[in-house]
Design a protein that fits this description.
The protein has about 200 residues and is an alpha/beta fold. It contains 7 helices and 7 strands.
């Protein structure tokens, strides 16, 4: 028998579906919201409601944005000839926090994983290659993760770019990023050093 009112039980059930949230944490969050000032609960509700409605992918780099072109792509101060390729928006955010990178990004929205049925057409590779050719990109920094899939994706990109008539410089972030690492879990100093110590991808 459920000891909570339906409204409370439903929120606990919904929160439990979030990654890393168990029964006790879901209960604690629910009771916090129940006793929080009305404006705080309303603000959270509005933010959740607007998350899907007001968030889209940037038409240029495929990062998250609330407009057609994201803040970074539309920033005239950024070096548009330098593109950092990452797997997810959270990886882009991790690199941005280092404050050491002044180029633009391309978010693949995944990595190549044949075992899972994810090939070149399932991620934003075609868009990347078109963009590099059309925007006269001088350097591509590959900052995919160091998992097997991340390395395979990096190699695929480097190989494809080397076949062009006027290929850009292709580099790979290096120092401080261990095999199997996920960018969003590294500290800013490590990421800053990795970006500064990138090497030519050959």
């Amino acid at each position: 028998m459920n000891t909570y009112p339906d409204s409370v039980a439903e929120l606990i059930k919904a929160l439990k579906k979030l990654p890393g949230i168990g029964e006790k944490t879901a209960e604690r969050l629910t009771f916090y919201l129940l006793t929080a000032p009305d404006n705080e609960s309303i603000r959270l509700g509005n933010a959740l409601a607007g998350l899907k409605k007001n968030t889209r992918l940037c038409k240029k780099c495929f990062s998250l944005t609330s407009s057609e072109i994201c803040r970074i792509c539309s920033d005239e101060a950024r070096d548009k000839t330098l593109v950092c390729v990452v797997e997810k928006p959270s990886d882009m955010a991790a690199v941005e926090k280092t404050g050491s990178y002044k180029g633009v990004y391309h978010i693949l929205q995944g990595v190549l994983s044949p075992m899972d049925g994810i090939g070149p057409d399932e991620i934003r590779l075609k868009e990347l290659f078109r963009r590099i050719e059309g925007d006269k990109i001088k350097e591509v920094i590959i900052a995919t993760g160091t998992s097997v899939e991340g390395e395979a994706t990096a190699s695929y990109i480097a190989e494809k770019l080397s076949c062009g008539s006027n290929p850009p410089v292709v580099s790979r972030i290096a120092s401080g990023i261990p095999m199997g690492g996920d960018l969003k879990y590294f500290d800013q100093v490590t990421l800053k050093r990795a970006m500064e110590k990138r090497y030519d991808f050959k």
